[in-house]
Amino acid sequence: MKTPLSSILLVLFASFIGSFGAVFLKAGAGRLHREIRTLLLNWRLAAGILMYLASFVFYYLGVREGELSVLYPMVSLGYIWTLLWSRLFFGEPISRRKVAGLALIIGGIVVLNLGNR
Amino acid sequence: MSAIPTPPARESFRFSHHQSIGLVFLCTLFGVAAQYLIKTSANALTVLTIEALLTNWALWLGLAMYGISTGLLILALRDGELSLLYPVISLTYVWVTILSVTVFNESINIFKIAGITVICLGVALLGKGDSRS
User: Distance from A78 to chain B by nearest Cα, in Å?
Assistant: First the structure.
């Protein structure tokens, strides 16, 4: 079974929106204090959760066709986007340890999916 | 100096790096439990009626667990670094593999064992400390 380009693009798009969802969750979480209104009136948290849901929908549409062993590890590309956005929006350093940890995780996901064929 | 004790600071409690990692760890456990319950509830949902949806306790419990999982992630992200915490969600792959082998009797092979081992190593590396330490 071949994996159609449309599926690859949908899953890539899902990982992209999902990584922005994480950015908005982090931005919203940073504004949480003891007052309940910092939770209820927190548009950043709401946007983050909506982006997560949207990412789930695109992922679901993407994996209807094509090989899961190709598409499933592609979701882990979201971790790379998140590393870049963390640097860009929150000034978090890209350390050697983060890159090594991320490489192990993505490598592990690829190997794991070889076993799911 | 006045004898009246100073009121507690309005500023909230802060989580340490390891506590934040622990929260994401819990978040992945709740996430997998939610996935399992929702999957089971979908199988039980043979006829799609409003009543069947409303009385499907596994579905609602699963959705509640997703809510708890998201709440734990938000708490963790409040004080921790996004670039360190977010990849810890990949523990989900480890739990799903363990669940599929132990509960759903799927076969285990060398790729699955190597894969979850390497993922755990990566998470452990990120969990060791934040980049300021």
Answer: 9
